[in-house]
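Pasting as-is:
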Amino acid sequence: MNRDLTRRCAAALLSLFALPWAHGQQFTATTDPARAQVQLPAPARADLPTLFLIGDSTVRNGHDDGQGKGAEGQWGWGNPIAAYLDAGKVNLVNRAVGGLSSRTYRTSGHWDRTKALIKRGDWVVMQFGHNDASPVNDNSRARGVLRGIGPETEDIDNQLTGRRETVLTYGAYLRGYVDEIRALGATPIICSPVIRKRWEADGQKVVRAGGNFAQWAAEVARQEGVAFIDLNEWGARRYEALGAAQVEKFFPADLPQETVHTNWLGAAINAQLVIAGLIQNRVLPESFYRQRFLPDGSDDRPVVDARQVKVEAPRDPALPSLVMIGDSTVRSGGQNGAWGWGERIAAFFDTTRINIVNNAIGGRSSRTFFTEGRWAAVLAQLKAGDLLLIQFGHNDGARIGDPAGKNRGSVPGIGAETVEDTRPDGGKEQVHSYGWYLSRYIQDAQAKGAKVVVLSPVPHKDRWQADQPRDFDDYAAWGAQVARAQGADFVDLTLRVAEAYREVGAARVDSFFADARTHTNEAGAIFNATQVVQALKGLPGQPVASFLKPPSL
C-alpha cells in the first residue's frame, strides 16, 4: 500500500474515533488518569502563540506537583522547560496526561479537547511511546498500539470500554496528530520517548528504547518532514557522560527501582534536551527564549585583558585561603564606581588566620576563565584546607558564534555536548557546557584537597521583585546539580540576595547599583558580601566559622 493511501486509510479510521466527541458525547476509559477529571491548562494569553505539549507522564506527571514530595517527587520535563521560554512572548501549555499512549490520548478525549485550543501559528510537541507497548486489549489499561509505522489495523471489542475499536500502528497515530495539527495551521514536532535508566552489563552504556519506538518516531518525522527531537539517544549519551552514580540522583530516592519517572533534576535534564532540539531545528523564533540565553547588552564594557590583571597570591602561604573566582559581580576594581562583593568580604574575616584571595576577573564566563589560562594560575596556588568560591553565569549566556558575545558563551546545561566556535584569530574552539566547566573547577580543586562552594549569580537590579520571573533559575539549577554530583556545596545566591532586596525595598536597592542593572557600587557590594557570609555560615560543617571576626557589639 503506498504512503498516500496509508495516510487516507489512517485518517478515515482516526475520524471514526472522533465521532462521539463531534456529537457532544464523551466517555472515559476506566483507567487512571484517563478516567479521572484531569484538569489541564489552557493558554494564559489569547493574543500570544502557544507551544502545546502532548504526551505521557514523562512530560506531565499526575497533577504536576511532585506528589507533594517537592523536588524529589516525580516530575515530567514539561514543567521545568518553562524556565527557558519567555512567557511574555509565547504560552507554554502542558496538555500531557500520565498513563496514556498515542492511542488512548485520542480515545480518552484529551486530544479533541486539546485540539479545540490550537490555532494557526501555534506549535505542538508530541512525545509518546512509554505506554504504547502495553497490551492492546485488557481490562486494566487497554492502551497498547500495533508495532511499527505501517497501515496494519486490528479490530477489537475493548474490554475496558465495552466498545468496538480499530487499533492502529504507532506510526499511524503519530501521522494522525501531524495531519490534524497541520490542518489547523500549526506546526507539529515529534520527540522520541525519553531514555530509561537501564544500563548494559558493563555499567557504562545505556540501553536504548526497546520496541523501536524511538526509531519509529524518527522515521515518521523524516517521512512527514517534521522536526524531530531524539530524546532517547541524546538522553542516553548524556547519561553515559555523567555515569550511573550521577544518573541515580535524577530519580526519586525512595523509588530505587524506578527507571522512567524522573525527579525534578532528571526532568530538568530532559527539558534541556528538548530546548536544545527546538533550537537546533529552529522551531521557535529566537526571541521566544529567555533573554539570558542571548547577549543582553547589560555589560557593554570592553573585556578586560587578563594579561594586565595580576593573579593575586595568598598573603601568607602558611595560612588557609578563601579563594574566589568569577566575573565582575565578584570583582570590578572600582571601574565607573562598580565594586564586586568579593572585594568587600575581607572585612568579615580575621585575616591573621585566613588569606582572602579574590581572583575573579571582569567579563569572564565559566568558559573564558578556563580557556584563557586564568584557572591554571589559580589552581597552582590552591592547597589542602583552602576554600574555593565559584560564581559564574552573567556572561555565560552570550550567543556562541556571535561576535557580540565576545567568545564568552558556554553551552547551556551540564552535559558533555560541545559546540564549535570561531575565535577572532580564526582558530576553532570546542565549547563545553556551563556544567562541564564547573565540574572541571570542582574536580581540580578537590584533587588539591580544597573545599568548594558553587554560588549562583547575584540577581540583576530589575529581576528580584516577587512579581517578576526569578533571575538565573537555569544557572542556579545547573550549579546545584553539578555541586551535588561532585560533592561540593551550593549556595543559591540569586535567591538569597533577591529575598534580602525585598526586605529593604526598591528605593534602597536602586541605591546599590553603579550602572543600569548589573554592577553594584560600594554599598551594594557590602550588602551582597553580607549575604555571602551568612550563606557560608549556614553550610554543613560551617567551614568558615573559625575564621570570622566576632560580631561587633
